[in-house]
Specification:
352 residues, 10 helices
């Protein structure tokens, strides 16, 4: 046993120090990025925000809505081959949106078999290999196996939170490493296992490791407001994945229901009891639930939330003089704080 004495930081622990800027308007900020990849021969261009591969947010309806803004969706791994075929057919007049949809995959043999069917029949470009614990040798071997099967595809894999494992996944075939253990809004991993890593420090460490190998990282989890998304990019994330911030909308799965006169939609972690009962019929006796279920206030169409997030990031860039998103991390100085907001009137708030 050993203890690391250095303090690790989360989104709530820092603010971005403003700097002199020559930008006159948020409209001058370009949020598009263009990436080349260590392993894939493809390039990708767009706004590098990804809807999480949860069955609530990783829907084809969300994919359609985000693709209009050149944003990405990791479609949940339970989407069938037939559903993917329908999505591709519907995209024939707008094939560009296929460049913004990840095919998600677990690490079981049946998951891999379905992935091979989808990728070979439909010729998609993006793969998301997703497990809660990216530290197992089996997962590393699975990443290598996937790269061998799809040498030209763009592969994102995770989740991890440390530099050495980021390097391991990149050297094993990942183009993008997904960073985050426990920060998600409906994740209880830290509560059940005591394992985790504050997200800002995790992104900084993993981005440093990845960029040295020409790899990229995706910050996954912990963002609750647009300012957190901006902080993730400022910390060095190349992509940011959002679950809870995009939950509760029309395009998300689940029915709207009413409690005490207010509309809600159901949202749950993919390791929750509810998710395991839905997709596997039970919670295996050798494991515990590491997610929770919540009722999210219904939020209407996802478009307004997207615009709010993008507007917040543009505003961040104007505060530090970054005309392009790729300049944000280079122009960022984080300052540690003990308080983020003045909440004196929070109980009386009527709208945001």
């Amino acid at each position: 046993m050993r203890i690391e004495e250095e303090i690790k930081l989360d989104f709530k622990d820092v603010l971005i120090r403003p700097k002199r800027s020559t930008l006159r308007s948020r409209a001058e900020v370009n949020l598009h990025r263009k990436y080349n990849f260590r392993h894939s021969d493809k390039t990708w261009e767009g706004i590098p925000i990804i809807a999480a591969n949860m069955d609530h947010t990783g829907t084809f309806a969300v994919a359609n809505a985000l693709a209009k803004h050149s944003m990405m969706t990791a479609v949940d791994k339970y989407a069938s081959v037939d559903e993917w075929e329908k999505f591709v057919q519907q995209s024939q007049h707008n094939k560009e949106r296929l460049n913004y949809a990840f095919v998600s995959c677990g690490i079981r043999q049946e998951d891999f078999d379905k992935l091979k069917t989808i990728m070979r029949q439909l010729d998609l470009a993006l793969i998301c290999l997703d497990v809660a614990n990216g530290y197992s040798q089996y997962f590393v071997d699975f990443v290598r196996r996937t790269r061998d099967a799809f040498p030209t595809k763009i592969i994102m894999a995770g989740n991890v939170v440390t530099g050495e494992m980021t390097e391991e996944l990149i050297l094993s075939g990942a183009d993008i490493v997904k960073v985050g253990i426990g920060p998600g809004s409906v994740c209880t991993t830290r509560k059940k296992t005591g394992v985790g890593y504050p997200q800002i420090s995790a992104v900084i460490e993993c981005a440093d490791a990845a960029h040295g190998l020409r790899g990229l990282v995706c910050s996954d989890g912990g963002c609750t407001v647009p300012g957190d998304v901006a902080k993730a990019f400022a910390a060095g994330a190349d992509f940011v994945m959002l679950g809870g911030m995009l939950a509760g909308h029309d395009e998300c799965s689940g029915e709207i229901f009413i409690e005490n006169g207010q509309k809600f939609k159901r949202f749950y972690g993919m390791s929750s009891t509810e998710a395991m009962n839905k997709h596997h019929g039970k919670v295996e006796e050798y494991r515990s639930s590491e997610g929770k279920s919540v009722n999210i206030p219904y939020r209407g169409a996802i478009e307004n939330t997207i615009l709010d997030i993008l507007g917040g990031i543009r505003s961040t860039c104007t505060y530090v003089g970054a005309q392009q998103l790729k300049e944000l991390s280079k122009r960022t100085t984080f300052i540690r704080v003990t308080q983020q907001l003045n909440e004196v009137y929070a109980p009386y708030q009527i709208s945001t």
